[in-house]
């Protein structure tokens, strides 16, 4: 279940048309796996999601992880 905080993150991303993590504007034309297009319905760009999910750091925790798990840890 996604908390109200994360619902607000998603709404802010829609309102500002910027990634909630890197704050860069979404670019719908940049559909590379690590591009600036929005990643599905997430409030993050594909680049931030790729970096998060591609890390091998054991204790990595970022806004993308919090969004995906619905937990602040």
Number of domains: 1
Morphology: flat
Q: What's the total number of strands?
A: 0
User: Rounded to an integer, what's the Rg over CA atoms?
Assistant: 12 Å
Largest sheet: none
Order of helices and strands: HHH
Instruction: Tell me, rounded to a whole number, the average pLDDT.
Output: 83
Topology:
Elements: H1 4-16, H2 46-54, H3 63-69
Verbal overview:
The chain has 73 residues and is mostly helical. It has one domain (4-69). The chain is built from 3 helices and no strands. The protein is flat and about 35 Å long. It starts with a helix and ends with a helix. The model has no long low-confidence stretch (mean pLDDT 83).
Task: Provide a concise account of the structure shown.
Helices cover 40% and strands 0% of the residues. The chain has 73 residues and is mostly helical.
Question: Could you name the key traits of this structure?
Answer:
73 residues, mainly alpha, 40% helix
């Amino acid at each position: 279940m996604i908390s109200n905080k994360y619902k607000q993150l998603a709404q802010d991303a829609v309102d500002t048309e910027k990634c909630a993590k890197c704050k860069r504007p979404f670019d719908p034309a940049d559909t590379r796996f690590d591009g600036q297009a929005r990643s599905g319905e997430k409030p993050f760009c594909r680049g931030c999601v790729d970096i998060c999910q591609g890390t091998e750091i054991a204790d990595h925790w970022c806004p993308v992880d919090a969004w995906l798990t619905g937990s602040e840890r």
